Each structure stands twice: as C-alpha cells, then as structure tokens.
Amino acid sequence: MKTLKNVFVNTHDNYLKLADILFDSQINRVELLSVREIEWGEINTQDKLLAFISLLPERLSEPETNKDIIDGKYFLAIPGAIDPHVHFDTPGFELREDFEHASRAAASGGVTTIIDMPCTSIPPVTNADNLKIKLDAVKDRSLIDFAFWGGIGGDCFSIPEQLKKNIFELAEKGVAGFKVYIISGMEDFKDLTYEQIENVAQIVKKTGKPLAVHAEDKTIVLTEQSDRISRGLNSWQDYNASRSIKAETEAVNKLEKIAKRTGCRIHIVHLSSTEGLKIVKDYHSKKQNFTAETCPHYLHFTQKDFENPAIRNFLKTAPPVKFEKDRESLWSALAENKLVFVTTDHAGCNPDEEKSSEDFWEVYGGIPGVEHRVPYLFSEGFLKNRIEMNQTINLLSTNAADFFQLKSKGRLRNGCDADISLINLWASETITASRMHSKGRYTPFEGLQLNAVVEKTFLRGKMIMDRAKKFFGKTGYGKFVECK
Hints:
By secondary structure, the chain is an alpha/beta fold. It has 2 domains: 2-77 and 415-472, Urease, subunit C, domain 1; 81-403, Metal-dependent hydrolases (TIM Barrel, Alpha-Beta Barrel), CATH 3.20.20.140. Helix content is 31%, strand content 20%. It contains 14 helices and 21 strands. It has a 6-stranded parallel sheet with strand order 10-11-12-13-14-15. Strands 1, 2, 3, 4 and 5 form a 5-stranded mixed sheet that branches. Helix 8 runs parallel beside helix 9 (274-285) and helix 13 packs across helix 14. It starts with a strand and ends in a 12-residue tail after the last strand.
C-alpha cells in the first residue's frame, strides 16, 4: 500500500479539501485531512498557499527513501485524464505517429487512458479480426491504458448480414462505440450516405453503444471545393470556405433527425460552430441521446490565426476552426454542461513532409494535442473563470468514464483504478514543440504560456511520469480496457 500525502482534492464547484490517498493498483481510501472546505480563492496564489500551509498542524515527515510515501506537495490530485478521441496510428500509419511516442506524450499531459479511432489503422477496426490485428500490434507498446472505437466505412455494406454481425461482435469485444464519416478522404475508410448512417444507427442502437460522426455535409464541401480547385484557388481561405459553418450545420441537423427516428446514441465529434451547437444544446436540454464534444483548438483559435504564416499549416484540421462568436459559444456551452467532454482529435505527422506545402489542399490536417489538453483546460478554462474546477475535471475524465462505461476509471473513489494526475496550479510552462513527446513535434499552440503544469501521473498505482525527475515508466505497462 502506498500513500500520496498532502494533496488537494476537489469536493464540488471550486471547493477543495486537503487529503492523503492510500492505494495499491486501486484506490483504497481517500483520507480527508481538513474539516472545512477550502474555497479556491483562499489558496489561488503562491503566497496564499504558503500562508495556508503554515497554519496546518505539523505532520510527521517520512524519509525520502520510503518509496511507499509520496509527497504530493499540496498539488491538486485529479482522476487520470481520459482522451476519448485520438489517432495513434498503430498499425499502418506509423510514419506519422505511433503508440510509443503518443502514449508517452499522453502521460506527460496527465492522460492515463485514451480511446483510439478505428480509421487510421491498417486494416481499419471494422470487424473482430481487424480488432485482433490492432490489439496484437499495440501489445507491449503503450505506456498508458487504451480502448478502441469500432468503425463502419463505406466498404462495409457489400453484405448486409455481415455488417450486422461485425457490429455486434465488436460490441461484444468491448469497443467504446462506432465511428462513421459523412465525408472522408481515406481510401481504407470511406464515408457513408445519410441513408447508410441511418441503417447503421438502427443496428448500433441495439448494442447500446454510441455512434460517433464526423459531421460535415459531403455535397456542400465537395461542391465548393471542386469549384475553387477548378479555378486554381488553393489558399487557406479556399479550404475553410469549402468546410463552412453551413456544411457542419447541415450535417448536424440531419443527424439530429436520424437520432430522433432511431433512438441511437449519436455523438458529434469535434464540434466547431455556434449554429451546430444550437442543435446539440436543444437536444441536450431535452435529455435525449444526441451529444457532442469539442477540442482545445476550437476553444483557442479563430480563422484570423491563419493569417500567421508560422502556424497556418499547423492549424489545419477538419473541420477548421471558425470565428470569435463560435469560440465563445463553445466556452459557454462547457460552462452550461452542454458538451460532454473536451477531446484532442490528436493526429500528428512529419511536419517537414506533410505540413509544408504552399497548396493548402495538400497540407495534412491534424494537430498532435494529447500532451497539452489537461494543462490547457485548467489554465485557459478554470483559472480564467470560464468553467469551475469540478467541471474541468468532469470534462477531462469523469464524463468520459461514464459515457463509455469505463467503470474503474474517472474518479478518486475507493475501488477505482489508482489513476491519478497531480496538477500544479501555481506554476506555468510555455508550450514548445521541441519539448513535445509526440512523434511529430509541431503545434499551433507554440509559445502559449499555460498557468498549470502536470507534475506526476500514476496509472493503476504506478508512477508513469514525474516531470521534475524527467522520469517515464516502462512502455508496455498500458493495457486494453473493454468498454462494457
């Protein structure tokens, strides 16, 4: 049994208590040391924190050689973060990213569990055989725990009965849910028509799993794209115009109707616009199965940032970031609990090869963000009073654990896995690509100072990252987690 001493734990809203956490592979108990709750404003500066500590009863100190006693140094302890939307690319696209690099980046960013998308693997995770290939490829290559999305591409419809069999077999083997695209540029994972999505939703509904959809209307995007390419236009403005707010809103509107007709849990990935959000919020308020996520880049950037040539190509994603109104609406939705979590859509590449073209259509669309999400949301969300502390923790961990039925994850509670991240809310660090752990070291967040630092990360009781000591645990400690 280990003891993590002298940490703050969130009780509700912006309130905390001082605690010790006793754990082995699971949390044994959380011993609350302070009788009264502490409001964040009482300790929100280094001076206030030191003054608070000076008034505490003196505690017996343990020698540093005792490996079973870990000094939490009055950092905030949160349940290990969960990122439900990443592309770690093993096997098949490992020139861009792989589980070794990406899982280390995740641990550095306080993330203990990820859910990897089915489309950026070869073969894609569209049936039980392909899932086994994926599991065999990832075995012993991850520092953190992982789950997988199943997928349904356009090629999966040749035999209708086989489609149903594949979906049910993947669900039985514990995939988190199923991913489809309305528009896809991937030969191995083609997009679906709305009619096909509705057919899939009727099947997925019977599994109880969510159906995640990349929501941009194919007709709108390709019509605008083809027109601009035919006229020799290839700037960032042309790309963004093709993937417009109208394209997202049209798709979200049609998916809302499919959710209503089928009763399937439909989840919109990387929502980017106010207009799309309005549809989701209306459904959310009616407590129906229509949900959405957003990402840090939509919370931080607008299309004005494409004017900066230093980050222009690094910022390309699908859908692209929108405008100031959209950015602020997304922050408001987080504060109103109308979005279920913040994910990264982590997708890296070799920037010299795939992020350097002057033809914006040819630039790879993806940001490797798994390392920065936790400190970003604490720094730019909580510490800037956009969201409360408990909301920040829910958006980073607890909501995803509940949504995907990861029953042993997402809480500092007796019997849960001892997945713990220690957050220093009194320190700052500047994002620098050269210090990233992803395979592709680039980021549009270059130079941004975050006023929160992940100091230590524990997975199932083992420390897998210690920033001060520049320590990482053994690759291969991470294991597959079934969502059931």
